[in-house]
Amino acid sequence: MVYSKIIGTGSYLPEKILTNADIEKIVETSNEWIIERTGIHRRHIAAEHETSLTMAEKAAREAMADAGIVPADIGMIIIATTTPEKMFPSTACHLQERLGIAGCPAFDLNSAACAGFVYALSIADQYIKSGAIKTALVIGSEVMSRVVDWTDRTTCVLFGDGAGAVVIGASDEPGILSTHLHADGTHKDVLSLPVSIGKPMEVEEELFIKMTGNQLFKLAVNILGNLFDETLKANGLQRSDIDWLVPHQANIRIIQAMAKKLDLPMERVALTLEDQGNTSSASIPLALDKAIRDGKIKRGEMLLLEGFGGGLAWGSALIKY
Ligand code: ACO
After folding, report:
1. Which of 130, 218, 282, 314 could pair with 140 as two cysteines, CB 3.0-4.6 Å apart?
2. Are residues 160 and 219 in the same domain?
3. Given the DSSP bridges, would you call strands 77-80 and 135-143 parallel, antiparallel or unpaired?
4. From the CA of 209, how far away is ligand 1's center (Å)?
5. pLDDT digits (tens, 9 = 90+) for 62-100
6. Listed residues 172, 195, 216: the one ending a domain
7. What is the pLDDT of residue 140?
């Protein structure tokens, strides 16, 4: 049996940091409100010259160095992003050109929002397991600061910029054990970035993220609880078999509820929320890379990755690291 295994990780965060105190000067909010309701203290913001592409390249090169491979070894590039370089060519094709590896499939996964990384990982995993490719570069990269309305306090305090990357490669040893993906379009209006290509833009507000936060909060807790049950059952595992939760970093209260559901102490949750905010599809690979580089996640441990976002779209990946 062929598995895909994580063989390298990397990340990139822009230098500029925006603290809650900085945001207090932009909208009517407070450091206390933001910390209490979200768990976020600060977030990184891309400089003018930085884009999803430039950040993806930095994270990808770090992940390839970690995996001990060169660009020519890559058999597929997928970039999960809701803030692509252009509508097309894809951010992944731009990156492919920069890496000098024309020929392999390269595409963006724009549509699963904060679940994008898990969706992308699932696709790459299927290609490796089928024997079609041997190695894939899977990236989440976002400049959320360019799609939030900086006059809307209900959303602008939440998001940050950055990129995370993983290299997965074919292996005889267990690696990615399962992925479970779902979507429910009946909740399409709870969270959206309604900019439309199909019709002329009516109001400038369509350029920005819209979210009914408290409704999304309740949906997320419910959906993720069921997702964990499904993932464990499909693998014949118990909660106690999970060593690490690597969640999408949206809100500390959602993450705490999920850790409780798994009976995991918060020390066993890969967390970046406090310093990075919600970086949408970049948040899971960023958290994974940090926990590995900090020496927390170790080889052989069982990881549960979960993401959810606009669509609604959500998914999990169970991984023996
Ligand atoms: N500062 C101060 N007050 C605020 C702020 C702010 N930044 N934002 C909202 N408030 C006020 C509201 O106006 C409201 O005031 P009111 O009671 O006078 O009407 C009050 O705070 C409570 O608002 P709620 O929205 O009910 O607050 P809640 O506790 O739900 O927290 C939050 C809001 C943080 C957005 C939370 O609902 C949340 O995290 N939801 C989930 C978001 C999420 O998971 N996103 C993930 C997907 S992202 C993606 O896919 C791109």
Report:
1. 282
2. no
3. parallel
4. 13
5. 999 999 999 999 999 999 999 999 999 999 999 999 999
6. 172
7. 98
For ligand 1, atom 13, the nearest C-alpha belongs to 154
For 101, the domain range is 3-172
Whether residues 109 and 249 fall in one domain = no
- The tokens of 131 are what? 């024997």
- Bridge-partner residues for 180, per DSSP? 316
Atom 14 of ligand 1, residue of closest alpha carbon:
154
Atom number in ligand 1 closest to CA 253: 39
- Chain segment 30-67, per-residue pLDDT in tens: 999 999 999 999 999 999 999 999 999 999 999 999 99
Are residues 18 and 96 both part of a single domain? yes
**Residue 210 in contact with ligand 1 by CB distance below 6 A:** no
pLDDT for 85:
94
What is the rounded CA–CA span in Å between residue 109 and residue 82?
Answer: 8
Give the pLDDT confidence of 284-295 residue by residue, as tens digits: 999 999 999 999
Q: Which residues contact 20 (CB under 8 A, 6 or more apart)?
A: 29, 30, 31, 34, 35, 40, 41, 42, 157
* Minimal-distance CA residue to ligand 1 atom 8: 154
Give the Å distances, CA to CA, from 254 to 13, 85, 118, 249: 24, 30, 18, 9
C-beta 220 within 6 A of ligand 1: yes
Residue pLDDT, tens place only, 167-222:
999 999 999 999 999 999 999 999 999 887 776 666 666 789 999 989 999 999 99
Query: How far, in Å, is the centroid of ligand 1 from the Cα of 213?
Result: 5
Q: Is the CB of 110 under 6 A from ligand 1?
A: no
